[in-house]
């Protein structure tokens, strides 16, 4: 029976239903009486405007609840799918991060390698300078405080240029000719320092 059925349709449906479930027509069915009573109550409810209005309200409320539940189920389903998609993307990112270093990690490793090479080179220079100082010390006597400085062939060096070059050293005297100069300094240690200075300024 349609929800919008009028009184005539309700009466016709009642007569048709009562023929099927009336106890007199179904003596072998022990539930026939209960079915007939239920059919009669349904007919009385549908023919009573107040009871029918209340029934319509209940039906409408149930439909709205069903629609809400279906919408909520769709929302929950969508939320679950989005959550699964995020978890899957996160897993892929984690796997990628585990497999390949990031740009910042690569850059950091390169910087560490460069710093290590610089430190190693500086240590080599310090060691080389110390060895040179030891070699020079082995050839100098305690009283020897003279340094001989030579320059490339064809280059003319003046006394003024030499004095500018050794500013900061305790130079007592300078003898200059066309090929070299002999500088007399205050001590053996000062001579060593001057030799190292000249080597670095080559």
Task: Present the secondary structure layout.
Blueprint: H1 7-21, H2 32-47, H3 49-99, H4 103-139, E1 146-150, H5 159-165, E2 171-176, E3 180-185, H6 188-200
Antiparallel strand pairs: 1-3, 2-3
Helix pairs in contact: 1-2
Describe the protein's architecture and organization:
This is J domain-containing protein. This protein is mainly alpha-helical and 202 residues long. 69% of the residues lie in helices and 8% in strands. Among the domains are: 101-143; 144-201, Alpha-Beta Plaits (2-Layer Sandwich), CATH 3.30.70. The protein has helices at 7-21, 32-47, 49-99, 103-139, 159-165, 188-200, and strands at residues 146-150, 171-176, 180-185. The mean pLDDT is 82.
**Overall 3D form:** rod-shaped
Mean pLDDT: 82
N/C terminus separation: 113 Å
Percent of residues in β-strands: 5-15%
Count the strands? 3
**Count of individual helical segments:** 6
CATH class of one domain: Alpha Beta
**Strands side by side in the biggest sheet:** 1-3-2
CATH topology of one domain: Alpha-Beta Plaits
* Largest β sheet strand count, sense and barrel closure: 3 strands, antiparallel
The CATH architecture assignment of one domain turns out to be: 2-Layer Sandwich
**What order do the helices and strands follow?**
HHHHEHEEH
- What radius of gyration results from the CA coordinates? 55 Å
